[in-house]
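Design job #97: recover the sequence.
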């Protein structure tokens, strides 16, 4: 998540890292741009998680977008989705109703995200993480990634840890391949919080992309589609103020914060 993650179809959205205490306010974890700018995490002036979403900057194109600085990603407007609508809406998953006038998370969605955070404790127990090696932590995060994508109504996807991943970023989402890449340094963190925030943030950029391209059509996605389309077309990862106010990032940060809040709640 972070400024690297911007809303353009070719690049990835950038999302600045959010504070340790999750948040639903911009500046914490949040929506990535659907257009392909890298998303970088972290507080302004500080290093943070980076998130790169694979989206292209031109409408109708697709490419890696979300880059999260050690932050979040961008979702292309017309990027083709690898799955059809039916596959992206698993049977039994609750439908999220429309967002409120202030783009607040609808009650059903907020409840689901809180529950998701609590479920992630089963996948990534903080005490188990503290004593786990890299292979064990990688396995735990792969399971968490599946849990997050299922909750978002997305198809299964892998998480990769490229050895040449930019050290200033935390994560990246590639809209062309649907791949979520993570900074391998996150596997060295004493707490799994940043890694889980990154997964929640980057995968939400995938949800946003699918909403913009019409693959996901539930009421919440439709109510935010035009705002995300605008964010994708006007994503600027070089302008920190614009980054934090971009609808893609604002929403992704809120989602990330809601998930982390549930995760931290005993």
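Job complete. Output follows.
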């Amino acid at each position: 998540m972070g400024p690297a993650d911007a809303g353009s179809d070719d690049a990835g959205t950038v999302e600045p890292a959010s504070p340790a205490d999750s948040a639903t306010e911009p500046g914490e974890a949040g929506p990535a741009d659907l257009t392909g700018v890298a998303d970088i995490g972290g507080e302004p002036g500080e290093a943070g998680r980076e998130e790169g979403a694979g989206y292209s900057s031109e409408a109708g194109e697709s490419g890696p977008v979300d880059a999260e600085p050690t932050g979040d990603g961008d979702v292309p407007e017309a990027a083709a989705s690898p799955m059809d609508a039916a596959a992206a809406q698993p049977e039994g998953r609750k439908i999220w109703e429309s967002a409120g006038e202030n783009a607040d998370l609808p009650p059903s969605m907020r409840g689901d995200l809180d529950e998701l955070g609590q479920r992630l404790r089963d996948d990534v127990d903080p005490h188990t993480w503290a004593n786990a090696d890299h292979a064990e932590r990688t396995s735990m995060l792969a399971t968490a990634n599946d849990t997050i994508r299922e909750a978002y109504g997305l198809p299964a996807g892998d998480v990769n840890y490229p050895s040449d991943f930019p050290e200033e970023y935390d994560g990246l989402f590639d809209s062309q391949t649907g791949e979520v890449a993570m900074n391998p340094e996150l596997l060295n963190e004493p707490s799994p919080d940043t890694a889980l925030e990154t997964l929640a943030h980057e995968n939400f950029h995938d949800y946003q992309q699918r909403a913009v391209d019409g693959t996901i059509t539930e009421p919440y996605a439709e109510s935010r589609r035009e705002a995300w389309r605008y964010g994708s077309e006007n994503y600027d990862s070089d302008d920190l103020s614009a980054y934090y106010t971009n609808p893609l990032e604002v929403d992704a940060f809120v989602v990330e914060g809601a998930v982390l809040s549930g995760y931290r709640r005993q």
